[in-house]
Amino acid sequence: MARYDNFGALDTPYLDETDSFFFKMNGRLRPDQLKPGELAMSINGRMDVDGAWQPRKGVNVLGSVISAGGNALIIPFYLYANKVISSATRATTTVTITTSTPHGFTTGTQVGIDGISGTVDPTGNQTITSTGTDTFTYQIAGAAGSETYTLGGTPRAGAPLISVINTAYGSCRYSDPKASNTEYIVIATYASALAINLTTGASSTIAYPTGITISAEVNLLQAFDKVFLFRQGATALSWDGVFSGTPAFVKVSNGNYTQPLVLTANNNATCTAGVVTITNTHNLAVGQPVVIMDAGTTGLTKGDTYQVATISTTVSFTFYASVDDFSATSVVLGARQSNGRGFTHMPAPAWGVYHQRRLIVPFAYTTTGSSGSETVTARNVTDELIFSDVLDSNTYDILQNQFRVTGGIADYLQTIHPFTNDAAIGFNRSSLHLITGLSGPLDDMEIQTITNEAGLVARKSVVTIGNSVFFLSDNGVYAANFGDLYNLRGAGLPLSDPINPIIQRITAAYAYRAVGIFHDNRYYLAVPIDGSSLNNAILVYNMLNEGWESLDIIEEDGWDISNFIVGSPLGINQLFAVNRYGGIHIIDNRVDDVDNIFLRPGATATSYFIPSSCTTRMYSFGSPERKKFNSLELHVESSTTNASDGEINGVFENLDSAGAINTVSGILGAVLAIGEDSSLRARIGNIRSYGGQIEFVPTAGRPKLRLVKLTASPTFRALTQAS
Q1: How many C-beta atoms surround the C-beta of residue 285 within 10 A?
Q2: Was domain 260-334 assigned CATH 2.40.30.20?
Q3: Are 43 and 614 in contact (CB under 8 A)?
Q4: DSSP alpha helices (H): ranges in 297-338?
Q5: What's the CATH class of domain 15-56+612-714?
Q6: What is the pTM of this model?
Q7: What pLDDT band is residue 69 in, cutting at 50, 70 and 90?
């Protein structure tokens, strides 16, 4: 009888596993659990519909950062007692200060200089270059010649001036309807606002009302043809979009006002071809509504509302109506009348939303007193909204146009986000609510709670994309559409579950600063990670691939994003990012392999190589056995603008060795030329491991990675024992 029925099959000569496309990343699952085409990590990369991974396009500079007019404060600094300046002079770039008493300052430290003036400004925070008992010098960017400075007020030298000038406190896009829709980014800074032309990069100053400066976060919004600047607990400002003369923000009217003036006069109305002309003293503006209170013998209907079309003089205006012509007759008109407690001007909101030709603002404050006053009263209400009249941003009916999103004040309102003409989501900090009936009378509005288990962390993260609304919660990023809003109850996993390890890196205390935008079929979400208080990273979700595509990072100190803005200068759709210093950068704009960015005031734009990489799933060939990894194959294509190179590294489970395998140029003998594609083959070195991953790190250009293939063989023979 034979000892064995048969011999088992010998080792399979080679096992191989291939990814011929890449479409998303998944960092939550173990690398060996990922599906073909999924990457374990993608840094500064893109995965377009052709199935290749490629480093993202570079960031480009639009304009310069805000100029402070003085040196910024350098930390750490020494606090010296203030000393009175008795004289100050300049010889070219050297300023000499004399104090009335010995100062005690030392060379190399910073002092704040204030209260002196001249041709070349010597004030601000300055670094001492030499000292005497009662004198010291410092250097400034000056001019030829010399001067003796004028002393004014209380000239002083001492503790550094805490500078708030070099900061962008808010921004928005402004499309000028009066100039062929020329587009600007309006930025609120300390002493004034700036409007930066997105085509030319030129800036225009927009003044604030006398005595107003801004030193805390504000929100800006274009509504109608105006830009509104909302200040927490203070009267809002508005700018009419006019650049001629001295463009300036003004305070909106505030406080309560009486019922509108009724317009009545004998034979004050005529109509020709649908144009109704009213001859009556008035103080109306184009677009303002008027209500027919008595139609007389005309075809007009009592109670109907019309918008002022044209204004000829202070005693004449027109509106359009579908009625028969009529000759001079008497009509009684007025602006819309309140049916309740009367009208109020705009409250003092922190933010606003423009929808259906109305402004929607939180009703947390009231304003009293004369127009333009700063008298503001807190109502201790944090979940209430109020709607403006149609086409009238500063008329609010307290009775008819105000409502509460919830019944309590602990769960405060973050924002309201309309996503259809008739429906919106009310985002509270710990709950979400569906609001319907926005297109009709507000007394028909209904509010239903969607969930008490998820809320909104960052107001500016909310973005409508198609039928979905994306937003950042404490649990991560959700995407809800009208049909599945109620699925958020006890809900499924957030959209960001595949990148949960990155979500966990978000700095919780500053997550409220996150800002999102939709551009080029992608949801961009700028977030603060790894302890940062500012948005120093971007999460990118590819809508076409239905997956997260990249963690975008610019590692240089000083990079941050305070706001995203999409604009179309010269008809080209572009994504702009504003940083804390007011510098404007264009995202995914350069076709080469560098980011051209401003990092701080006073610095010139600098180019930095984009540090990109991707890490594949783990190739285990469907077996838990240890294998001997023999070789790899990569298909790489160079871009049409730059020659390419990159490092190829191995990551192995239960490893014998790992790390660098080779480089593109090492395999080819030269870098991959512009526009060239190649199939790269390299030996791994018979590494024994359960599974292996490949990390591809571009070092030059923006090479496309189209395919990764690993080969291995089992390390043991398989025998079949005889029975």
Answers
A1: 11
A2: yes
A3: yes
A4: none
A5: mainly beta
A6: 0.79
A7: very low
